[in-house]
Specification:
Elements lengths: L1 H20 L1 H68 L7 H37 L1
Protein name: TNIP2 protein
Keywords: Coiled coil
């Protein structure tokens, strides 16, 4: 019985010695694991930064395109108003032509579409800011 207990004690002492000898190795392994995780996170951050810059550039481009389209719509609306004034001047009782109505409806649709695009861009911009803040 004593020999059996001595043998178990020796096994436990061996395990303790292994544990004592193991921490430097475990520490190095943990350091390597943390360094690998850090490198992966830095790579993900760099990718995120590139994507955010790309999305920001795209947002600015869309805003410029939207401003240009809005300007064109305003110009077309002015042209339509002038045309309608001229037609009204020529004939006070004349009803605007079907073509004028179509142009007006198209301008109205474009303005509504532009407002929707603006809202979508603002929402997308807000979400991107939240993602950037989260990252």
């Amino acid at each position: 019985e004593v020999q059996k207990l001595n043998q178990q004690l020796e096994e436990k002492n061996g395990e303790i010695q292994q544990m004592i000898n193991q921490p430097p190795y475990e520490k190095e392994r943990e350091i390597l694991r943390l360094q690998k995780t850090l490198a992966e996170k830095e790579k993900a951050q760099a990718t995120s930064d590139v994507l955010c810059r790309s999305l920001t550039d795209e947002t600015h481009q869309l805003q410029r395109k939207l401003a240009s389209t809005a300007e064109m719509c305003q110009h077309l609306a002015k042209c339509l108003e002038e045309k309608q004034r001229k037609e009204k001047g020529n004939s006070d009782d004349q009803i605007p032509t079907e073509r004028s109505n179509q142009v007006f409806l198209q301008l109205l649709y474009n303005e509504t579409s532009l407002q929707a695009v603006i809202c979508n861009l603002q929402e997308e911009n807000r979400m991107l800011k939240q993602k950037v803040a989260h990252v």
